[in-house]
Amino acid sequence: MAQRPKISSSDVILSCAQVADLDAIITIEEAAFPTPWSRTALNAYIGDHGFVVCEYEGKLVGYILVGPQIPSLFDRLERLTMGWLSNENAPETVGHVMNIALDEDYRGHGLGRYLLQTGVNYLKGLGVTRVELEVRVNNPNAIRLYESEGFETINLLKGYYQNGDDAFLMSKRLTV
Fold it and tell me: What would the pLDDT profile of 57-115 be if each residue is shown by its tens digit?
């Protein structure tokens, strides 16, 4: 497959996802994933600063949804205890790439990388020290992108997706 020309970040507009974007987001979501998020689930994040859409030549062509992970009570207690025992002052703050997708016609132009970098930078601004994401094991293009941006596979999640597909859990340390 021939390499597609890169679309310059100066030629796209990134903005916070709005209600008016939802139909285009759903169209991309349903085309991109065998088990897409529901309209209700995506709508719950509308207006969140971690839900960013990408427009190119007036068309919404992709989006990313990121946010800090909210640990369970058990995880918080364990981190506090481990921090106390090891004299660590601050427990690790983990961010999560919950969703990222591009219209198929706009993949391979550098927009996924730009969205990913934007999401990671947003999380970094929130004080996140590590970012995690899940990716289908049968999605080599996404895996290559994540690896090229410093993510490492840390676990195999068997049957992670609704349809039974496995996922890799990938992680990247951030310097604050």
Answer: 999 999 999 999 875 555 555 656 656 555 555 567 899 999 999 999 999 999 999 99
C-beta neighbour count of 170 within 10 angstroms: 22
| Structure tokens that stand for 156 in this block | 């195999």
Report the relative pairing of strands 94-102 and 130-136 from DSSP bridges: parallel
| Structure token pair of residue 61 | 């062509």
State the CATH number of the domain containing residue 124: 3.40.630.30
Say how many CA atoms lie within 13 Å of 13 toward its Cβ: 9
Q: 87 lies in which domain range?
A: 9-128
The total of structural domains in the chain comes to 1
Is residue 47 situated within a structural domain?
Answer: yes
pLDDT at 45 (0 to 100): 96
- CA pseudo-torsion sign 48, 100, 29, 103: positive
Rounded to 5°, the CA angle 69-43-103 comes to 90
